[in-house]
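Hello,

Our lab assistant flagged a job as stuck in the queue for most of the afternoon. It eventually completed. Since we weren't sure the result was trustworthy after the delay, we are filing this so someone can double-check. Below is the sequence as submitted and the structure that was eventually returned. Let us know if re-running is recommended.
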Amino acid sequence: SQTPLSQHIDKPLRRHEWTARNRTWTRSQLDRERADFFDTRVTGRPEVWQVLKAALEVLWEADTTTAQSIIRAAEVTLPTGDLSNGAYDSLGNYYALPEWIVSDPTNVAEDRPDGKGDTHQRDDDDDLTAEEDTVEEQDEDEAIRRREEKGKGVADIRDMVKVRARLSENLPDVIVSIGPEESVRSLARKIAEESGLLSIKRVRVAYMGKILKENLSLKDQGWKKGHVVNALVFNR
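-- returned structure --
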């Protein structure tokens, strides 16, 4: 039988450092082979692979804190804290990750001038560590509130859907109602409001291991009615 989660050793996430010895890695090779790796996983649960990929994408940008939040919110445990030594999901399944997936080698080679170059670029909308947009967010929140007040009679109450959000800080789940076309940014604000975090914390919404784009609706990003979303809580 598989070991229950409570019995797994779980160490804090730490960065993995290594030097390539048997082959030369360029930026474009790393990007291409990482994409291929996640496209070809056949063991384990797909949603856990998505969580690990989302965590690695921010870890590659040196944001260990956010990566740890994503892993913890999904109840994934790290026996050594180093993802190159693998991870366990809440059912006890083991996920092996080679070191070239976990981090760049210290000796990444330059791409040839005619090569593809760096294909690993993150959408500005997914930048979890930027704090300079806080004022802009607050202005956006205010605009959302004004639009909601103005259009209260327009949205049919029968069209509203209930969304259960699981918070990353050991807080109880919250359930909020949103319109079918309402943005994820608006949902995040409602979650923060409902959990009493609005003025002190920032919430980002994740689903199936992926951080959702704030300007799109849940439905536009594949969410199915009745599914739980993860609410990752950060300091403002």
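-- support follow-up --
The delay was a queue issue, not a problem with the job. The result is valid. The longest strand covers residues 161-167. The domain at 134-235 is CATH 3.10.20.90 (Ubiquitin-like (UB roll)).
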